[in-house]
């Protein structure tokens, strides 16, 4: 796209006239550079008092969005931490149950060994008598 030259021979005018001519050239440049759809947004920007007017609303909206996102993140993090703590306690309870079962089974095995030894002794003694 070719840009038209914006160099004009400006006549010598007073300071106010120079400002008016520069403002007119800026408006002309906006018309030449910006497409028709974006001209509407430029007009709105001028009506709100420049970019500062719309930026204040956008900044407030961004802060509100950040705050809501931050609160949601904290809530999700708290829920995840609570779930992990719950799993730790559940795992500890399961391990305690399993260890108690193992201890009782160990006692049972020792009793069975003793009974086996007693039976073997009894059988050995009965064979000797025969």
Automatic annotation (TrEMBL):
Residue ranges, annotated region (Disordered): 36-55
Superkingdom as given in the UniProt entry: Eukaryota
Pfam families given in the database record: DUF4577
Transmembrane segments: 64-89
Keywords associated with the record: Membrane, Transmembrane, Transmembrane helix
PANTHER family with a match to the protein in the record: LEUCINE-RICH SINGLE-PASS MEMBRANE PROTEIN 1 (PTHR36475)
Protein name: LSME1 protein
Lineage: Eukaryota, Metazoa, Chordata, Craniata, Vertebrata
